[in-house]
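Q: Joint fold for the lines below.
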Amino acid sequence: MSADSEDEFMSGMSSEGGFEDGNESDSVSFGEEFEDDEPALDFGLHDKDITSAPKKPYEVDFDVFGPRDIQKYQDKQIDEVGAILGQPPESTAILLRHARWNKERLIEGYMDHPEDVLEKAGLGLAGAVPAKTMVVDGFVCDICCEDEPGLETYAMKCGHRYCAECYRHYLSQKIREEGEAARIQCPGDGCSRIVDSKTLELLVEDDLKDRYHELLTRTYVDDKDNLKWCPAPNCIYAVECGVKKRDLNRIVPTVRCDCGHYFCFGCTLNDHLPTPCALVKMWLKKCEDDSETANWISANTKECPRCNSTIEKNGGCNHMTCRKCKNEFCWICMGVWSEHGTSWYNCNRYEEKSGSDARDAQAKSRQSLERYLHYYNRYANHEQSAKLDKDIYLKTEKKMTNLQSSSGMSWIEVQFLDTASQALQQCRQTLKWTYAFAYYLARNNLTEIFEDNQKDLEMAVENLSEMFEKPTSELAALKVDMMDKTSYCNKRRIILLSDTAENLKNGSWKFNIDINTA
Amino acid sequence: MALPKRIIKETERLMAEPVPGIKAIPHEDNLRYFDVEVHGPSQSPYENGIFKLELFLPDDYPMTPPKIRFLTRIYHPNIDKLGRICLDVLKSNWSPALQIRTILLSIQALLGAPNPDDPLANDVAQRWKEDEPAAIQTAREWTRMYAVSENR
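A: Joint structure:
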């Protein structure tokens, strides 16, 4: 069962996931022509599927790409599609960007109505005009009003001609100030022609070219569903992963960027295994907004029936007098006090249906609040502990140096501290999210197994965490113990995550909310 | 900073061949700042009104659009209380090939053809859609109140 669904994910990946996504589908008709430039990446992907060690159920296939790789794949696709469409690379690039890199749709559309496609992408009528500046007699630039003879001018195929200086200025304004790249239009009024890369190469200064290419690469990654920028600050890598949006309720695609940052490919938040994105979103929202404050208010307070001021009863009898409007009422039935007649201090409506309903509602609200707080406190505790562990991690380096000098161990020999601290971080991160996950779980056997796993991991983590607080002098003696505990932690984490992921994939979890509507 | 040739030329042309119904005069101490007057188009609720605007050419002009604002109060779905104007050519559709003259003509055209589907002043736009005759009546009254000088 699990193998089946795993295959499904993998096949989904290799058919649509790669940069070379068109290879399987559209090359049915074109494949033979392009046999020799079969993309290397595709082979790489298949190789990996065969040779790599069997992955854990919670792991997903992904690749990390640097800016240069992305540029390369972009160029390769442009070449391929350009050959099919019979268009020069710069026009192909514009067409592909216009089609948001959906190769199949572009080729299909182009085969049916080439003029329409070109027009919509801002390429207008074809006609060979080489990209170079020229001098035109009697020319007056509409932008700067310069009319000196010998003025260099430039125009694209649309014929909107301006002096080269203004053109250059216009492009740099767009790139530098407005951050545009892929869809810069001709400076002419109302002209929707997109400035092609040849023009940019010709006119833009070198320092801006880098920025331009960076922006182009950015739109390439932004346009592709299977590519995402690593959200870590200042990280230049993009990650490719084939997991689709619709699969996110069955898998938590956690990827590790080359910069070392772990994040969820589905929502780009920090690693939140084992909790699926939808639950994470709900949980964060719940913790963030004041819904629980509202819950507390509803559990502990009532409103004055006349002026609606919120009142907390902190003792005394049921005869309430609103501080604000001086309304006198009964705390139990909320009725006007004067109507209580002789049954003062013993509201006889208490046993009535409306009274008991109100009481039930209050009890329920209190219960759900307590349940939430149970999970939230543990979630928050692990978050806090992870922060503290992070401090330890920062101090680890120092500890390692100390240990080296005090015990005479070599640098390699003290690496166990670093490994342990990283394991601790990762396990805490996982534990934290198990509580958000558990909050949404319905009670059944699976949930109990889950909680057992959770408990085991938690104990392992706390044991390891405790060792970190020992003075440096004792650490050398604890080395073996610590390494054992580290690997035990990691093992418990893998067990928990594998179990959760298997059940998620098979749809075995029962939640107390509808995960699909989240 | 020396005034670019483009601005000098544009100003000269605005003075030499003014557009009918539009006046734009630069300040003597700041040639990038213009006092503008636009006549309400005939057949529109703004007919007979003379609307004052201010226009400023930023340093990057003509790479960036001029900044324009109505000084005279006006009841119009695309112009808000502060006189700011919602017009595509002043924002995303600006092209350096456009000029002060063309922009002011666009604004005059906007007075003749209000677009309540792309509103800036929500209350006005809503009224415009719900009860157009009444909205037009208000626009006419405001024009009489704020945009018609006494000596007429």
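Q: Anything notable?
A: Chain B has one domain: 5-151. Chain B touches chain A at residues 4-6, 8-10, 60, 62-64, 93, 95-98, 102 (CB under 8 Å).
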